[in-house]
Amino acid sequence: MQILKKIFFQLSFVILLVNIYGTFLPLSPYFTENSNMIHKNNIPLLESQQTKKNLRDLDLEDISKQDLKRINYLFAASIKNFWPDSNFIEFSENWIIFLIQRISLLAEKEKILKIERFKWNKIIERGYGLCSQSSLALYDFLKRNNFNPLLVSLGGHVVVNLNSGGKNYILDPDYNVIFETELSNLYFNSDIIDKAYKSAGYPKNVVNILEKIYLSKEDNWIGTRSEFYPDLTKFYYLVYFFKWFIPILIITFLKFNEVSRYKV
């Protein structure tokens, strides 16, 4: 029994150290600097640490449209439009999800293998994602810097809505495009959409697809991240709480048990 207790104590202590490691040290990038993966519009790959530095250098107290353009670009350059067959969460990120995913892999249950990350820094460190993952990264960054962004689902594309300084912006980090207008205005003015995406360098066929997405009101939705992903939000809240709580509880219990035994 004492050997078993010692194993549990050491294992819990290691997990606690891994949690601390994962909190402060970045994830390994999915793509290397020599990778030929580029953004949709030939934006070169930007390393996550450089992105973080550039974001820290911005003055977010009095944010302007140019600042938002810069932020949008930084996320576009850091997140390549790519999604792997399985989006594995690393052990250092969350050991509980890591174990659940490996069990799910053996059980051939794919849902948990494809979950998106919520934390902007972890998303850009890994360096990939489709439109929803890019928008989740931008949303989280803005939220953590005391803004009130909203996610906008356009029935096939996801962007971010931000109201700041009495102005409304639609930010598309996946395509590196930004609108200074209300979402409702885009429903009735295809010229704005056409001009924005053409100016960003996208060909007519791509612009036509995006116009149809914006102009079609079918399945369009706007709201907070927790409203957009209610189940995943609860799941993340629980697993990030228990990844710390479980090892601390085990260590505390075993140490208390040991002290009590010596007193007797």
| Number of DSSP E strands | 5
Strand content: 5-15%
List low-pLDDT spans. none
Structural class: alpha+beta
Largest sheet: 5 strands, antiparallel
Overall residue-averaged pLDDT value: 90
Broad shape: elongated
Rg, nearest Å: 22 Å
**H/E element sequence:** HHHHHHEEEEHHHEHH
Bin the helical content. 40-55%
Number of DSSP helices? 11
How are the strands ordered across the major sheet? 4-3-2-1-5
- Span between N and C termini? 18 Å
Overview of the structural elements:
- The two termini are 18 Å apart.
- This protein is an alpha+beta fold and 264 residues long.
- The radius of gyration is 22 Å and the shape is elongated.
- The protein is built from 11 helices and 5 strands.
- Helix content is 55%, strand content 9%.
- The mean pLDDT is 90.
- Strands 4-3-2-1-5 form a 5-stranded antiparallel beta sheet.
- The longest helix is centred in the last third of the chain and has 34 residues.
Structural features:
single chain, 5 strands, 264 residues, 11 helices, alpha+beta
List the helices and strands and how they pair.
Blueprint: H1 2-24, H2 48-56, H3 65-78, H4 95-107, H5 120-126, H6 131-144, E1 150-154, E2 158-164, E3 167-172, E4 177-179, H7 183-186, H8 190-199, H9 204-215, E5 220-223, H10 225-228, H11 230-263
Antiparallel strand pairs: 1-2, 1-5, 2-3, 3-4
Helix pairs in contact: 1-11, 2-3, 2-5, 5-6, 8-9
